[in-house]
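quick one, 237 residues, struct below
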Amino acid sequence: MAVLSTMREDIDAVFQHDPAARSTLEVLLAYPGLHAIWFYRIAHWLWQHDLKLLGRLVSHFARWTTGIEIHPGAKIGRRFFIDHGMGVVIGETTEIGDDVLIYQGVTLGGTSFKKEKRHPTLEDHVMVSAGAAVIGPVTIGRGSRIGAGAVVVLPAPPYSTIVGIPGKIVEGERARGDFADLDHARLPDPVARAMGNLVDKINQLNVRLEEMEERQDCLEDKLPVAAPLPNGAVKEP
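---
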């Protein structure tokens, strides 16, 4: 019963996150992201029961049929959904919470060659857009969103929006709630924002400089004029 309940939740996650899904039969037959997560759950069970080679073979078969590579050692929560999915890679020590959504071309990769925690942790309700990469043992806080093509190498607090290369947080502590659409056309540019702040500072300095010049002119006007002496010399005031 637990297995059937989990499978039902996975199907419901497809309908929740993909408006193109029209029927349960279509989801069962034509959604490689769903197939990949089901293959993963089998491979992960084998991995946990010390049938690691068999688990790797199941994972390899899933990669061949779906274009999605999930290491059987990864830890993935409930209602995980991969939309489209081609080119997704999820490493061995990756940890993914509940209700996480990722798109095609996403890499959850590692940088270390040691047998240690070397892949990311995505907490509940995280969304990772197409082509993004999260590299190393970093934690992405609950409810965060990662923009398309971002390369994230540093941890992020909950409810952040992360864009760019390297990934920069452009929103922190955003409104808590269910998944919200990540409108890439309206995302702020962190570099442009920094340049804008620099221009504002320069403008403020120019205003201060003009005020100082005006004060200096006023002081010079108030100084007494030097009086001439009979021999043509100038007497200092």
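The mean pLDDT is 85.
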